[in-house]
Amino acid sequence: MQRPVRVKNTSAGFEVTWAEVGKLWADIALPSGRIAPVAEQLKATVSAEIRIRPRADAVAGNRLVHVVGGIAMTYLIEAVLPDNARSMLRLLCSNVPHS
Fold first, then answer.
1. Residue 41: CA atoms inside 13 Å, Cβ hemisphere, count?
2. On the CB side of 90, how many CA atoms lie within 13 Å of its CA?
3. β-strands 63-68, 71-82 pairing
4. Closest Cα to residue 29, out of 50, 13, 58?
5. Full 3-state SS string of the chain
6. What is the dihedral of CA 43, 58, 1, 6, to 10 degrees?
7. Per-residue confidence of the chain (99 residues) as pLDDT tens digits?
8. Is residue 62 exposed (0-12), middle (13-18) or buried (19+ Cβ within 10 Å)?
9. How far apart are CA 22 and CA 63, in angstroms?
């Protein structure tokens, strides 16, 4: 899991970098995809539901990077939903480019 960190750049502005929060166990459900018109262009969106054990730093805006065979898939956490027993968290995520 990674969280966004604002870092000053040379032009007196800020850039967003990603700081490692920690490694965690996750169950990634099969992602779904859709195509939506955005600004008169078609934009492909891939979404996934990821289940993890409860932790305080699992918040919307953080991201998860899943690496398999040297290929990284990055998921931005859009929403965090606990189950009824509060034993697991469901993370509703969108697939974003890895930077």
1. 4
2. 10
3. antiparallel
4. 50
5. CEEEEEEECCCCCEEEEEEECCCCCCEECCCEEEEEEECCEEEEEEEEEEEECCCCCCCECEEEEEEECCEEEEEEEEEEEECCCCCCEEEEEEEECCC
6. 80
7. 999 999 998 888 899 999 999 999 999 987 777 766 767 776 667 788 999 999 999 999 999 999 999 999 999 999 999 999 989 999 999 888 877
8. buried
9. 11
Burial class for 77, CB neighbours closer than 10 Å (0-12, 13-18, 19+)? buried
Please report where in the chains the tokens 């600004």 appear, as a residue.
39
Per-domain residue ranges for the chain?
Answer: 20-96
Q: How many CB atoms lie within 10 A of CB 96?
A: 13
What's the predicted TM-score (pTM) here? 0.81
- CB–CB of 98/87 below 8 Å? no
